Amino acid sequence: MLHHVQECLPEEACGLLAGREGRVSQVMPVENSAHSAIRFRMDPQAQVSGLLGIEAQGLELVAIYHSHPSGPETPSETDRAEVYDPEALVLVWCFGSRGWQARAFDLGGNDLLEVPVEVEAVE
Questions:
Q1: What is the pTM of this model?
Q2: Could you give the CA distance from residue 120 to residue 59 in angstroms, rounded to a whole number?
């Protein structure tokens, strides 16, 4: 996922995270059809294909990820307004003084609720 985020610079990266019971087992990068450094729009065909693949594998959509190359470290007002699955977390990658960091948020309610995440390196 981090490789995809860095590869997309200076644009925002985006994708789907699939798994079970809150644990991600599959990262599915999706093209940002907006090709913007401050906004993302998942390519509709790739997004639908990814969601159908998740369902076909018996997995759940755990989170939607995207990057904020220039901040903020939290979901933007646009992110909050356009969330399309209130049951999935929103994971935001942001570059700061400690390098790239990922933070996850539950946007299902009225408040912005941060959810702790543990990012594991894949060998």
A1: 0.90
A2: 19
Dihedrals phi, psi of 2, to nearest 5 degrees: -60, -40
SS3 97: coil
The answer for residues whose C-beta is within 8 angstroms of residue 29's C-beta and 6 or more apart is: 1, 4, 13, 14, 15
CATH code, 75: 3.40.140.10
More confident residue, 8 or 88: 8
Please provide residue 88's backbone torsions phi and psi, each rounded to the nearest 5 degrees: -90, 145
Q: Which residue has the tokens 């901040």?
A: 71
**Catalytic, out of 12, 60, 73, 114:** 12
Neighbours of 69 (CB within 10 A): 18
Task: Note whether 51 and 16 are within 8 A (CB).
Answer: yes
12 catalytic residue (yes or no): yes
Overall number of domains in the chain: 1
